[in-house]
Amino acid sequence: MERHLMDSQIKGVSTGTTILAVTFNGGVIIGSDSRASIGGYYVSSKTINKLIQVHDRIFCCIAGSLADAQAVTKAAKFQISFHSIQMESPPLVKAAASVLKELCYNNKEELQAGFITAGWDRKKGPQVYTVALGGMLLSQPFTIGGSGSTYIYGYADAKYKPDMSKEECLQFATNALALAMGRDNVSGGVAHLVVITEEGVEHIVIPGDKLPKFHDE
Amino acid sequence: MAAVYMSANRSENAFSTVDLVPEWAQEEVSTGTTIMAVEFDGGVVIGADSRTTTGAYIANRVTDKLTPIHDRIFCCRSGSAADTQAVADIVTYQLGFHSIELDEPPLVQTAANLFKQTCYRYREELMAGIIVAGWDKRRGGQVYTVPMGGMIVRQPVSVGGSGSSYIYGFMDSNYKPGMTKEECLHFCTQALALAMERDGSSGGVARLAAITEEGLERRVVLGNQLPKFSNA
Description:
The structure holds 2 protein chains of 2 kinds. In chain A, 31% of the residues lie in helices and 33% in strands.
């Protein structure tokens, strides 16, 4: 949809990208590739980290103009930690997603960035929220985004099941990223995955040559 | 210059017929679509959705996009409905003539190259993405893809049309060489169902055909019989 068009029209460095977030039984996995490109012709970074930690158990991943995304997440990180101090408790994932949404919606003319927010909180457990280009906020059991996501809609629809185990979910996310990176020329590099549970946060990096290979490779 | 993408397309009318004709009748007829073909040992399985659109209106919801070119050679059409019908008619004539001259059934590679010749020569005018598939005695089941622009390449499995973008991942992960005919039919049904669910320009019923030395077997999977994948 809009992401597909968005990435090819961005001036400057953009994350033509593949990002995803998937809930499983007890937590959520958020993942992305690591390529940043200029207009799809030059890879300006092979190892960029698109998974930004906005609070202890809340991450967000960015798609679109890198400059816009960095500015928005910096502002959001501040607002969320301020809110958390005021409330004297860890913020809700929905609150973090709302902060991003407000920033995106109120500045929709200038910005070209979309986000996926995922995390764990005490009230609702693991959650995934999408903040689309114009500032729409949507809660889903899993979501995919970025230019590379077009190629894995079929795979994700077919393979996702609710209440997976952590290992099944890791396999699902890794396969999805590998398939998208295999078809989208502006996604690539390494696969970054973050597993967020009540216990803590685990960061996994899978280099390109260790990604799953498919029949024609 | 010819379009490289195969997304659903809208063409603007040069003159305004705002009041004379409803909006949907002003748009070009397109088979924004999902088509695919898979080789197996002994033949090929081809599949397509059944939606033809003029802008937002579905002009035909039971289209047959699997067009016979010869007894054991079919083509799957995507892009402009008029362009693909015209090219298919041209190739059917050329191939029929060639086959009579040769006094034997034509090769799939010949049919594919005839498509390529027309699609490449008229690349600026045409908007046609075609998959040619069939069986012949020399090389068995074969799939050749002739996308917009007029390239030709043989592939064991190929998808095309606007809906194909959504199923590249599914195709890469689920295709295995050495599948049987039934496995190929199942794989195609699933892939088409997934694409039809996500692509607004694909839908209706799933049409499938299996082409082997023995002959042709056509199947239709109606909308309510398609596998469901929604997790709502």
